[in-house]
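Ticket reopened. Same input as before:
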Amino acid sequence: MRKVILGMNVTLDGYVAGPNGEIDWAFRTMDPAQMERIIEYLRNDVDTILLGRVAYLQQAASWPTQTSEMATLLNGCDKVVFSKTLDTLEWNNSRLATGDAAEEIARLKQQPGKNITVTGGATLAQSLSRLGLIDEYNLTIHPVVLGNGMPLFKDLPAPLNLKLVSTRTFDTGAVAHIYQPA
Amino acid sequence: MRKVILGMNVTLDGYVAGPNGEIDWAFRTMDPAQMERIIEYLRNDVDTILLGRVAYLQQAASWPTQTSEMATLLNGCDKVVFSKTLDTLEWNNSRLATGDAAEEIARLKQQPGKNITVTGGATLAQSLSRLGLIDEYNLTIHPVVLGNGMPLFKDLPAPLNLKLVSTRTFDTGAVAHIYQPA
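Engineering reply: fixed in the latest deploy. New output:
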């Protein structure tokens, strides 16, 4: 069955963005090998992206007009956008999901296809973790501490025990960690 | 010069303890090899431990009556206890530091000796990081998410950029990461 994979950059203190959504901290230690790994992941492993409203609006304002390989891959993926306030979506291959996230994801997982990924949006990521809907966490921990910001995890009903699947250390000091629920 | 090394277990979301000081989450994935590494560290690399009030009271109630190698090593180390409310200390080789932490640590670093370590106490750890007094972070990230608790880092004046020195993965899925300020 298709897996739901959350793939994100995080700080050592567990934030995916600064207090105002800043992601500049990731640039200092973004390794070319990490970029290549992301492109391979989009090329081979996934065909569907889940997005919240904020992440959708950010990405839809940027990727459709770009022609890099990453842009081409992202533009080609199916995008499922969880929002109760957006009316129409301009980005190609995107559709609105206005109902229950658990039901939507259960339906997606029963369909054939590659894996499903969540690559941005603290609120959606928090919500899917809280509901136990993430099958795999692919977290690249960057060597930086923000002290506050938007946490990847928030208001869990209980501690989430994980098992480590693999790690990969990049030259910049960022370390990719793959975890699955224990 | 002696280094100040912060050596602690942390969750994947950056907590050193649960909301009420719980540290049971670390037991599931505490590896015998990690315990051995801690003992070697106490035996070879450090001779002085910095403690806050809460960590002192917890540890002073437990280690002095134990005879394990770890207890013997901890009992033998010099303990410097940062507290404005404690009057007397019962644990052997411990003394009160009531003044400025930065001055106390500067004085300690000018004295000969092995490295100086901080092994517990969220408040002291937060304070020393905030003041830029930590020379090395030795953080073992356990494969668990709490969702809330006592964070290792809090209220930093600015993002803290680090460089990765090394990693070591234990069989339990805990991963030790050594960082220094970049």
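Chain A has a mean pLDDT of 96. Chain A touches chain B through 34 residues (CB under 8 Å). Please confirm and we'll close it.
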